[in-house]
Specification:
mainly alpha; membrane; transmembrane helix; cell membrane; transmembrane
Length: 201
Amino acid sequence: MSEIDFAALVPFVVITLYTPGPNNVSSAAMAAKFGMRRTWSYMYGIATGFFLLLTLCGLFSGGLMTAVPQLEGIVKWVGAAYILWLAWGLVKEKPGGDSTSKGEVARGFVKGMILQCVNGKAVVFSLTLYTVFFSSILSRLGPVLLSALVIAVVCLFSLILWASFGAGIDRFMGSSSKRRALNYCFALMLVVTAAQVAGLL
């Protein structure tokens, strides 16, 4: 990895992973809704899915983008639709009380993984990471797995930070009206994120 420009890589990774996006905003929203403890499975799902996405991009990105140049555009629009669906779930959620079953919370891991399949920001980030910064290790299993693991861990810390923010805000939202307003704020952030992912903003 001596050929990698870490001076350019580190700011790219930190800025991309720690700024608002589908993973961060949805983690904050889930922590505000369910609490930090019940959000861990969702965050682990995101980190696991992100690791798999990074690995696939590291192993196959060069040939895949050449074979299917339209893939990036398709992923962006499908991802935007999925993010809007997450936003709608926040809008229709009834504030007050815990109406969520254990099964729904348990499915958070799967939801987190699915989000990575349609997360345009994550896909574009992963493709850029390996084609621009990690081109010297493309298709080399060991270095790709190691780099994917490191980036996924960095992503997990970002999720924890955003989820802590969401859980912290929720402590001050005692009334149903305040909780509904918080849901609307997170939903609006997801709508803006969806527009950015689709390339509309």
